[in-house]
Amino acid sequence: MSSSLHPHRDDNLANRLAGKTAIITGGSSGIGLKIVEAFVRHGASVVFTGRDSERGKAAAEATGAIFERADAGNPDEAEPVIKRALDFNQRIDILVNNAGGPGHRGSIEKTSLEQLNDTLGVHLNGPWHLMALAAPHMRAAKSGSIINICSVAGHRVGAPYLAYSIAKAALQHLTRCAAADLGRYGIRVNSVSPGFILTPIHTPHLDAESEHAKAVSATMARVFVARQAIARTGQPEEVADAVLFLASDESSFVTGTDLVIDGGMMWGQYPPV
Questions:
Q1: Which among 105, 165, 168, 177 could bridge 151 via Cys, Cβ 3.0 to 4.6 Å?
Q2: 154 lies in a domain?
Q3: Per-residue pLDDT tens digits for 81-96
Q4: How many domains does the chain have?
Q5: Could you tell me which residue, 200 or 68, shows the higher pLDDT?
Q6: Which contacts (CB < 8 Å, 24+ apart) does range 123-126 have?
Q7: Secondary structure, 3-state, 180-205
Q8: What's the pLDDT at 51?
Q9: What is the residue range of 177's domain?
Q10: CB-CB contact of 117 with 63 (8 Å)
Q11: What pLDDT digit, counting tens, does each position of 177-227 carry?
């Protein structure tokens, strides 16, 4: 990524997560992969999950992290992830609930309860379950950082993905509730809400490298950028930087907070004067 976007970044300040063990769900591509890369670069031992074994193994080879195949929406697949992380040094310091997708596209009338529950399963139930499994280990260490990847769609209506917006709004409030519940044990819980970040999640049914997918992404980017104060698309690395901050001791007095990374989309832009 161009250093001009990060004039403050100094990668010589490495090892911000040295000695820490982290779990990252949905870490084989997009924002999740950049979080994995950042955590490994800063000294963490990382276990990451994903549903695509081939892609996950390739990401593990490229980053040096450990891949554990798991579906974030399936609670039966969470326990092996916890056990794999404990193999490092019998502790879990960081949990990043990143796995997800746009979910069902449709209005209330055209979204079935099954489709709604599928979306909630990945974006709400999955994080809840992993948090519940990780919390005892963090409590024993009297420290821990949990970061939930939410979305600006949880702050505003993300039509036509109503189920997704509802799930992300619920995840934001789960973050606040968990922060209040776990803070007494030294566990911090925060969330990050990206805006339009250029990743394959926006074209889930297309080959990301195809010309059609690139054209669709470019059209979407123009629409979203026109709503932002900063007139460019966001990059996955920029979200990873925020997650790295919340995972590190630099944010030791931050909990229950949602950090919006959207180039000003939430508030828009004034016309030129």
A1: 168
A2: yes
A3: 999 999 999 999 999 9
A4: 1
A5: 68
A6: 123/164, 123/167, 123/168, 123/170, 123/171, 124/167, 124/170, 124/171, 124/174, 125/73, 125/75, 126/25, 126/72, 126/73, 126/74, 126/75, 126/78, 126/97, 126/99
A7: HHHHHHCEEEEEEEECCECCHHHCCC
A8: 95
A9: 12-197+235-261
A10: no
A11: 999 999 999 999 999 999 988 776 654 544 455 565 556 566 666 777 777
| 223, part of any domain | no
pLDDT of 229 reads 85
- Establish if 3 belongs to a structural domain: no
Instruction: Write out the two tokens for 184.
Output: 């007494």
How far apart (Å, rounded) are the C-alpha atoms in residues 20 and 43? 8
**Residue 214, class by beta-carbon neighbours within 10 Å (0-12 exposed, 13-18 middle, 19+ buried)?**
middle
Distance CA 238, CA 171 (A): 21
Residue 271 lies in a domain: no
Is a pLDDT exceeding 90 seen at residue 228? Answer: no
Tokens representing residue 68 in the block: 């554990």
> With contact defined as beta carbons under 8 Å apart, do 48 and 36 qualify?
yes
Q: What is the maximum span of the chain, computed from C-alpha positions, in angstroms? A: 59
CB-based contacts of 80-88 (< 8 A; 24+ apart in sequence): 81/23, 81/25, 81/47, 81/49, 81/130, 82/23, 82/130, 82/133, 82/134, 82/137, 84/47, 85/21, 85/22, 85/23, 85/47, 86/21, 86/137, 88/21, 88/45, 88/47
Residues contacting 170, CB < 8 A, separation 6+: 120, 123, 124, 154
Tell me which residue of 151, 175, 149 sits closest to 165, measured CA to CA.
151
Active site residues: 164
